[in-house]
Amino acid sequence: MDFNKAKFVDVKGVRTRYFEEGEGKTVLLLHGGNFGSPHGADCAADWNLNFDGLAKECRVIALDKIGQGYTDNPKTDEEYTMSTVVKHALKFLEVLDLGDCHLVGHSRGAYLSCRMTLEDPSRIKANIMVDTATLGPGQGRNHIVFADTPQPFLSRESQRWVMEKYSYNPKCVTEDWLDELMRVASLPKYLESVDKMEKQGLSEKIFLPNHGREKADTFDRLMDHGTNRPNLLIWGNNDPTATIDQGFVLLDLLRHKEPRTEMHVFNESGHFTYREHPEAFNRFLLDYVNGL
Amino acid sequence: MTIEGEKFVDVKGIKTRYIHKGSGPNCILLHGGNFGSTTSADAIEDWGQTIDDIASWASVFAFDKLGQGYTDNPKVDNDYTMDAVVEHAYHTIRTLGIESAHLIGHSRGGYLTCRLTVEHPEMALSCIIVNSNTCAPGTGTNELVFANRPGIALTKESQKWILERYSYGSECVSEEWLDALVEIAQQQKYAESIDKMNNQGLLWTKFLPGLQTDKEDMYQVLQSRGIQRPVLQVWSYNDPTVSHAQAFELYRMLASKERRARWQIFNQAGHFSFREQPKRFNETVRSFINSY
Description:
The complex is a heterodimer of chains A (292) and B (292). With 292 residues, chain A is α/β, with parallel strands linked by helices. Chain A has a single domain (3-291), classed as Rossmann fold. In chain A, 42% of the residues lie in helices and 16% in strands. Chain A contains eleven helices and eight strands. In chain A, helix 9 links the parallel strand 7 and strand 8. In chain A, helix 2 packs across helix 3 and helix 7 packs across helix 8 (202-224). The longest helix of chain A is centred in the last third of the chain and has 23 residues, at 202-224. With 292 residues, chain B is an alpha/beta fold. Chain B has one domain: Alpha/Beta hydrolase fold, catalytic domain (Rossmann fold, 3-Layer(aba) Sandwich). Chain B has an eight-stranded mixed beta sheet, sandwiched between helices. Chain B is globular and about 45 Å long. The A-B interface holds A 237, 248, 251, 255, 259-268, 279-280, 283-284, 287-288, 291 and B 237, 244, 251, 255, 258-268, 279-280, 283-284, 286-288, 290-292.
């Protein structure tokens, strides 16, 4: 994944960075984390071990979600919500005129892919979700796992510590990934979003309450009408934050109204299953997508 | 009735039926059930379309296990054991001149693949265990699921009832499959094996006690040395004879020492997941095999 080959597009006034390579079926990668996170500056680079391999067999697009990576922050305080993230990503599909998208969402990005599919499946072909406590019933264990995050936050060593804690094999936390996470974390707009979320308290005042309501509504929709698109859930057996038991409960919810639902588990894998097993993950994902 | 392309080979005095189709990596299909079963007369025919599906990209072998289908019964009472089934399978593979292969086993055949892999790792390129409570710790729920079976054992009606109870839908229980199983059950040698297992009680005095000891022994290896081969468990949500808890426990043991341990969960499929989700079964197996 060549970080110098970034593309930018205006999505309703939000300058949005994305990467695009290859030809064939469209696979849209949706990374995890959220704007203003003091722990890790997740962005499209989370997929850097997978991107080139996928591009050999499909058209792969990885975007920076609103407020993350090099994509502009939300314009108003009220927009520091997951609902805004969903709106922005749906608009992105429209602006690029993407159809038959195979969404692959990780962590908070898996909530995003599921929510996009529920709200407007018109441009979506499949909903693929990886290791997600944000969508999984109940809570993740992040507050326990990251209780002792070394300071200063967002320094290279702090982000490395966070990503290694997420992982089964620390080798999947590569230097080129950390380089990009550091570049993002040093952007003035990123520091501004940290200030908004943490110091000004938007995380607790706006973001989490909105997410709580929206998550309940998401479960209602899954129980009521389902995704109307095939669902694939991929999980790491050793994810310390989004436990596999959460995955099993989520699977049950997803299959309630959508028969085309399945789950695949990788072993010796933490939260970033696609980084821990890049080749096997890509192979499995591509074979699934090609079979649809 | 014969299966297209069926052949016979002498395996240490045991006439053994097998078939071979396709070219590519070697795959061996090992069906479920056991000799003298009064529920269903499992044989190569269990695999149905799976053989052709896999033969489209691989060199597929399938054979009738010792005492099942059109393969001879064990020669002595002491061989009415899973251990003898494992021995026979090992020698069949050797007699067919196959040095190594991906082993794919269903139900009791799932135990067989796992046992062969543990005992003869040089023979197993990978190990695929499909819907197997024989391989999983604890006992299955077969006695409860099949209690109160109507009519006379092993008639078409009876086997149909059994196979439908095993399944999510009834479409996968084809006339062709039933006719083949009924014909197998009508052989004199099948009647003999029923007499041995049930009337003479070898099921209770030999088969089950031997299997229990062998399972404990295998679990020791899985958790100490590990299986040392890529291993995939395929399990489906609607299998009434293998619980999620059992499948999870088996996966935990397989994964305890093997990084390449994976687990695929299908929805809307019962015990014969490959008959109810044929397309995804084939894609998943191929994807797994191509990953390592």
